[in-house]
Design brief:
The protein is mainly alpha-helical. It has one domain. Helices cover about 60% and strands about 5% of the residues. Strands 1-2 form a two-stranded antiparallel ribbon. α1 packs across α2 and α4 packs across α5.
Length: about 180
C-alpha cells in the first residue's frame, strides 16, 4: 500500500460501513427469501444476487453499491486510488457473499429454537472484527485486506444517514413543544 496516499482519503467510519452492508444485505436477503424455498437455494440465490449488486453494480456505479450510495461512501483500490477492477471486487465480495449468506440464514432461522444457528453469524463477525482491531491503520476488514481495497467517504450519494438524523431531531423538537 502506498502510505502517502491513504491517510489523505476520508475514511468511512465503521458504523456507516456496517449500515451500508446491512442495507445491501437486507435488499439481497429479501429477494433471496422470495425466490428460494430451502437453505441451499437461499444461499445460492443470495450469493448470486450479492455478486450482481456488489460487484457488477459497484463496478459500473463508480465504486458504490446501493448501501454505499445511500450513505455517501465508495470502494477504492489502495494501490491506484481508483475504482477496483472486477477481479478485486470479486475477491472482496466473494468473502462477504458467503459470510453474509450464512449470517442471513442464521438470523432468519432464529425462531427455530436452535441456538446453534447463531454460529452462522461468526464468519461475518470475525471479518468485521479485523477492522475493529485495526484502529491506527485504515480500519480494513478482512475482505478489504485480501482485495487491497478501502472504503472512503464521497460527496456522491443520497446522504440517508444525515436525512434520518434530521428527521429524528425534528421529531424530538415537535414532541418537546
Amino acid at each position: 500500500m502506498s502510505d502517502n496516499i491513504i491517510p489523505q482519503l476520508p475514511k468511512a467510519p465503521l458504523s456507516r460501513r456496517v449500515a451500508a452492508f446491512s442495507i445491501d444485505a437486507l435488499v439481497v436477503w429479501f429477494l433471496s427469501a422470495i425466490i428460494s424455498n430451502n437453505w441451499f437455494t437461499f444461499i445460492l440465490f443470495f450469493m448470486v444476487l450479492w455478486i450482481i449488486t456488489r460487484v457488477l453494480v459497484v463496478y459500473k456505479n463508480y465504486g458504490q453499491s446501493i448501501g454505499h450510495y445511500a450513505l455517501d461512501m465508495k470502494v477504492l483500490d489502495t494501490r491506484y486510488q481508483r475504482n477496483p477492477g472486477i477481479l478485486d471486487l470479486s475477491k472482496r465480495e466473494g468473502i462477504l457473499a458467503l459470510s453474509g449468506a450464512l449470517a442471513m440464514l442464521g438470523i432468519s432461522n432464529l425462531t427455530s429454537g436452535n441456538a446453534a444457528v447463531l454460529l452462522l453469524i461468526m464468519p461475518l463477525f470475525l471479518d468485521f472484527t479485523v477492522a475493529l482491531v485495526d484502529i491506527e491503520r485504515y480500519q480494513q476488514a478482512f475482505h478489504d485486506r485480501i482485495a487491497q481495497t478501502i472504503v472512503v467517504g464521497t460527496m456522491r450519494g443520497y446522504s440517508l444517514d444525515i436525512k434520518v438524523k434530521w428527521l429524528v431531531d425534528e421529531a424530538k423538537r415537535y414532541v418537546r413543544r
